[in-house]
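Q: Give me the 3D complex with zinc ion.
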Amino acid sequence: MRSYGDGHCDTIVRIYEKGQELFCNDGHIDIQRLKNFQAPLQFFAIWLEPRYYPIAMHQTMKYIEFFYSQIEKNPDYIGHICCYQDVQENIKNNKISALLSIEGGEALEGEISAIHTYHRLGVRSMSLTWNHRNQLADGVAEKDSKRGLTKFGTDVVKEMEELGMIVDVSHLSEPGFWDVYNLARKPFIASHSNAREICDVPRNLTDNQLRAIAEKGGIIGLNLYPPFLTSKKEVKVEDVFRHIDHILSIAGEDFIALGTDFDGIDCCPEEILDVKDMEHILSRIEREFGEQVVEKISSKNLLRVVKEVLCF
Ligand SMILES: [Zn+2]
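A: Here is the predicted complex, encoded as structure tokens.
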């Protein structure tokens, strides 16, 4: 069985909204399919539809409660993690490790103490923005934004590092990214973003950004969303490999991971239907780049960041 680690999925919000279950559902990810891998590590993001922004914390609480209720229904298969020791414990018991993350600092409602509350509730990673401007910074949809981190955004990044939470820069505008880079004392991640040199969309990262993440010891998580892979109509597995090749050449093999965006995307490249098919992708990475590289991409690099940031 192959190891597996994924830095981003939207499964929790999707199944909550559809009234489905984590053990088995009709989306990209469920426990039944995840457990075909060897003790996988899955980040489960809580993302808010913009209509919820006026009640961001209220809605985030509902999703967090739902996340735990689903974990508690399946204690033999999955365990929530707060630190690296929890991951090791799950590996020993052959259980899936679930890391709870938040996508977009809207969930804080501008309140710094909320980051402590979320930490107490077991959240261990947060992306600072989604696509739009919020109290922390601008997202990538704010075109030509010159606005970096706000004072509040700066305070949040500092608190997150202090608490042992992973700062995620996916969706963040470039000035905000460079402010995080200048501020960060620990590895930070782009949990689900690709290379802009290969596919020129604002959600992808420039070569300088890829290098900067590597320099700080973070990871870039490969996103499977076709519009972030290529501008072509038909999107194939080869298009994923062009990003892998490029990120390997710019950032190096220690700083690339998976950030599928499963259950947050409405289409995937051909040959990929769901998390099961990641087995083929990983086998192919092994054939092209060797055993050491596939181990790093499939889980080792993401695990290293979890170990470095969560436990100190
Ligand atoms: Zn996203």
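A quick observation: The chain is about 40% helix and 10% strand.
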